Amino acid sequence: MKKYLPLALRIIVAIILIQTLRFKFTAHPDSVYIFSKVGMEPYGRIITGVVELIAGILILIPKTAWIGASIALGVIGGAILMHLTKLGIEVNNDGGILFITAVVTFILSGLVLWNNRKDINFF
After folding, report:
1. pLDDT single digits (tens) 77-91
2. CA-CA distance, 72 to 60, in Å (whole number)?
3. Is the pTM of this model over 0.85?
4. CA of 109: how far to CAs of 30, 39, 86, 94, 98, in Å?
5. Closest Cα partner for 59 from 42, 73, 79, 49?
């Protein structure tokens, strides 16, 4: 079980990050609305999508999982901050599901980073 839980966490985070890309890259009206409201449309939407794609890929590779988790923490931390300051918890009557997903992704990314802390060798 100890072997599969870290892998499951990485897969869940990657799925969440990657499944949102279709909204960002196809200029889905909800995505355009969100990024317009925070003043980052269209470049912020596209750059955020690219960064989330990179994080999603890196988090799946065991040796770079900590890098992907760190990037995900940064991007999703920014999303949570935007929800709390400019967007609100509920966006376009979604019942807060986008915010909740961001919080869950943030927490799981933190767990992935913690689980892979031994791979961080700056010193």
Report:
1. 999 999 999 999 999
2. 12
3. yes
4. 24, 26, 23, 23, 16
5. 73
